[in-house]
Design a protein that fits this description.
Elements (H helix, E strand, L loop, with lengths): L6 H7 L1 H4 L1 H13 L4 H30 L2 H27 L12 E4 L1 H4 L9 E7 L5 H16 L4 E7 H10 L1 H8 L2 E5 L1 H16 L3 H19 L17 H15 L4 H6 L5 H25 L8 H10 L10 H30 L9 H4 L7 E3 L6 E4 L2 E4 L4 H4 L3 H11 L3 E2 L1 H9 L6 H5 L1 H11 L5 H11 L1 H5 L1 H4 L15 H17 L7 H6 L5 H10 L10 H12 L7 H12 L3 H8 L5 H11 L2 H16 L8 H18 L8 H15 L5 H8 L4 H6 L2 H16 L5 E7 L4 E9 L4 H11 L4 E8 L4 E9 L5 H20 L4 H8 L12 E5 L7 E8 L4 H11 L2 E11 L2 E10 L8 H15 L12 E3 L2
Amino acid sequence: MSLSRTPRANRVIGELFEGQALKAEIREIAAAHKGRDLDLRNAVVARLKKGMQEGRAAAERLLKEDGCGRCCSMRLSALQDAVITSAYEVATTFLYPVDNPSRSERMAVAAVGGYGRGMMAPGSDTDILFVLPYKQTAWGESVAEAMLYILWDLGLKVGHATRSVEECLRQARADFTIRTSILEARYLVGDKALFEDLEKRFDKEVVEGTGAEFVAAKMSEREERLRRSGQSRYLVEPNVKDGKGGLRDLHTLFWIAKYVYRVQTTSQLVAKGVFTREEARLFTRCEDFLWSVRCHLHFLTGRAEDRLSFDLQREMAQRLGYTEHPGQKDVERFMKHYFLVAKDVGDLTAILSAGLEARHDKPVPGLKGMVERFRAGSRRITLKDTPDFILDHDRLNVADEAAFRRDPVNLIRIFHVADKRNLALHPDAMQLATRSLALIDANVRENAEANRLFLEIVASKNAPETVLRRMNEVGVLGRFLPEFGKVVAMMQFNMYHHYTVDEHLLRCIGVLSEIERKVNPDNGLANDLMGTLKNRNLLYVALLLHDIAKGRPEDHSVAGARIARRLCPRLGLSPVETETVAWLVEQHLVMSQVAQSRDLSDRKTIENFAAVVQNLERMKLLTILTTADIKAVGPGTWNGWKAQLLRTLYYETEPVLTGGFSEVDRGKRVIAAQGQFRAALSDWSDEKVAAYVARHYPPYWLRVDLDTKLRHARFVDETESAGRSIATHAALEPGRGITTLTVLAPDHPKLLSIIAGACAAAGANIVDAHISTTTDGLALDTIAIRRAFDHDADELRRAARIQEAVEQALTGEVRLPEVMAKKLPKGRRTFTVEPEVTVNNSWSNRHTVVEVSGLDRPGLLFALTNTLSRLNLNIASAHVATFGERAVDVFYVTDLLGAKITGAARQSTIRRALVGVFEGPAEDEEPAARRMARA
C-alpha cells in the first residue's frame, strides 16, 4: 500500500520539509516542559505552527521557482509527516509514557486518503488512521486525543478514525470508500509491525479476487462525481480536483491500477504492458501540471479552492508564466493548456479501461456485458465489406495493428462504419488511432474518398455529435481538419461561453441533429423549417465551421468564411454551395443580434435584415443555425423568449423576401395567438376576454408565450379588482433557476430606469425581461431575476423584499440614486470591455438608434437610462441584451419634440455622456445579465 520514498524524492523534498531538525527541537521543548502538560502543549504547538508557516512559505517560493507541482505536493506532505510524527512522540514519550506496554498498548499511525499518497495541496485535509491491535484502550484513547488536540490547535482540518486491524478489514469489505482509503494507507509512525500486518491481511483477505467489483464501484463513483460537477471536461470554470479530466480522475486511475495490477508506480504499468513509456510519462506530466495548478490556486486564495473561476484565471496564468500572443490572451493560453491536459487524462482513462477489459476486470458495454466477461475466448467477427475491421464483442475494432498503415483513409473510415452501423468503438482501436495520427498527412486530407466519408459523418442522420466527439478525443478530427485542431481546448475569457470552442462546435452539431429529429419542441421554429431545406448538408458544415477561426487577431466571422471557401471544395461542395456555407459562417451572429437588440416592429429593421439575408432559403438556414448556436452556448442561454423573437423576425421578414407573400400572414398570426388565449381562458366571459385582448398591441401577441399571457391577464384582473394602479407579483421557476417578477404600473418615460434601478438596489440580478405597453397607457413588465437561495421559502422572502423595493421606487417613497449609492457593492473588475457608443439614424425611419456596449454591472441599465433622460431624450423602446460580462443596450430615442437627433454636436454629447457611465467606479464582479425588449 505505501510507496517507499526514493533518494531522488528525498532530494526533491529537502531537509526543511523532512523536518529532522524540527523534530529534534520539539523533543527539546517537550523535555524542558515535562510535567507541565498545558505549558508543554502550548510551547510545542507554537513551535510547530512556526515551522509549518516557514515550510509553507518555502514550498510556495520553490513552486514559483521550479514550477514542479508534484514536488510541491510532496514537500507539503513531508512537512505534515514531520508535524504528526512530532505530535505522536510528544504524546507517547512526554504526556502518556508507558514503561512496559502490554500487547494492547500498541498503535500505528497511518496517512490515508489523498494524504496517504504522499502528496497534498496547501488547503488539503489531513486524513489519519490510528491502527490498534485489538479494541481501544485508555492509553490509546489518551494518545489519539492528545495528538488530535495538537493538530487542531495548529488549525489543521483533520479527518481521523481509530480502528483495530480486524475492524479495518471488516469495514473495508463492506465500504468501498474505506477500502480505497486503506489501499492508499502509508505508514507514518508507531508500531510498524502492526501496520505491516494490516497491509498483508488487507491484500490477502480484501483485495485478492475482487478486482472486478472494485473497478465497477470506482467507475460508478466517478460517473456520479462528474454528474454533480458537470459532465464535460471543457467547462470554462473547471474544478481542478473533481472535474472531468482533473486530479480525481488520475487518482481513480491509479487506485484501479494498484488494486488490479498490484503496482506501486506508473512505471510498473509499463512493465505490465498497460501503458507505453510515453503514456507513463504523459501520466506524470498531467499529474505535475494539475498539482501545480491546484497548489497555486490554494496559495493564491488562502483556502482549499479547487474551482478555476474567472476571477482567478488571469492571476493564475501570470503566476504560471503564460504570456499574451496575437489573438490570444495569456489567460486563454493557460486555459487551453489546462483543457489539453484534461483531454490527455481522458485518453489515459480509455487506455487503462482497454487493459482492464482485456483482463476481464471491467465489464464490456451492452446488455450481456456482465455475462461476456466470464466467457472464455472472445467473439471476433470479420466484416465482409471492410476486411480491415472486425466486430469484437459487438464493438468495432481493427483486424490487426497494420490496419491504419495499410490504408490511412481507414482512420476516417472506421468512424464512418461505426456511425452507419451504430457501433461502439473498441478502446484498442481508439488507442491505435491515437498512435497513428502521423499517417494523416496532406495526401489523406486531399483524398476524395476520405472527404466523402467525413462529410457523411458530419451530416449523418444517426449520431453525428457522438462520432465527431470520438474523432476529436483521439485527435483524428483536428489532424484531418488542422483549422479545427487549432481551436481544440481553446477557451474564451468571458462569461457568455460555457465551453471551449471545440466543445461548443460539437454541441452545435448535436443540437442540429436534435432539431432534425423534432424531439424537442423548445427548439421552436427551427423544428418546422429543417424539413423544408433544399440541402441540409450545408447547415451541418456551416455549424461545424462557424467558430473555427476563434483565437485569431481578426474578426472570427470573416476569417471563418475565408476558411470555409478554402475547405468546402475539398469536402466536395460545389462553388454555389461553398459560397452559401461561407455566407452562413460570416453572418452567423446577425440574426441573434437583430432579434435581441432591434425593434422588430420598426419597418427599417426588417428591411435592413432582409437586405443581409437576400433570399428565403438563406433565412431558413440562418434561423436554424442561430437556434443551434445559442442553445449550444450552455445551459439556460436558450429560452422561449428568444425562440419567440426569432420566430417574429423570421415571419416579419418573410413577406419582404417573397414579394409580399408569407407562409403565415402577420394578421393571421395575431388572430391565431388571440384564439389560443381565448381558449385557454375559458373561465372568463367573452366580453371580458374581448376587452382585455383589445388592450394589447399586435406585437404583444406575437412576442409573448401563452403561459406568460395567461399569467399577465390574471395578474392585471386581480390588481384592478383590488383598486390598485401599481402592483407586483413574484413566482418561482426552479427548473430555470430564476424568480419571475411581474410589474404593472402607469407607463412613463423613466419607468424602465426606475425598475432596473430598484432591482439593482435590492441586489437582484436580472437575467431576462419583457416590457410591454398597453393601449390604455399601462406598462406590463415580466422580469426574470437570478435565484439566490436553494429553499423556496428563503427565495420567496427575498422576492418579497425586491417587490417592495420596486413598488417603493415607483410610488416615489425612496430616491433611487441615494439608495443605490449606499447599497451597490464595490469590487475589482475581473473582465475588461472597451465601451463603445454608436448613434445611428439609418437603422430606423422614426427614431435615432443609440447602441451602447461595455462591461456590465449591477445598476448599469439605470445609469444609462438616467443619463439619456438628463440629455432630454425620450426612450421609445429599449432592447437590452447581455452576453456574459458584455452588455449591449440599444435605445430607440427622439428629442422632446419627437424628432431624430441629427446635429453632430448633439450626437457627440450623447456619446461622451454614455461612455462616461462606464468610467465610474468598479462594481460587483458578477454582472446582472439582462434581456429586455420594450414595445
